[in-house]
Amino acid sequence: MKIKLELEIDVVMGGIAPVGTNFYGYLPEGTTYDDIIKVFDQPQFGRSPDGEMQVQWVGKINGLVFTIYDYKSRVFPQYNKDWHVGGESKFTAELIKAYFQARLSE
To answer: Measured on CA atoms in the order 6, 44, 77, 37, is the torsion positive or negative?
Structure first.
């Protein structure tokens, strides 16, 4: 069953530690670095200490922590089209994907 909901969304970027999040999905296929910047502005973090991520966005959507990152990518972020979404739950990742697609199409 599918239902249609209308939600009030509050997104806050930066000043948040990417702690307690897990991988729950991907941004839509073909998403570019510039697409993510258009919606979420510049990344909050650069290369991770273990080298597994080159860039990472961290924020909260309706109070839920989320991350967007390029896990183990072999290309520069500007050429990447494979973006991971992390959060506290699958719901957080689904909310981010819906928000991202709606904002990108504005």
So the answer is: positive
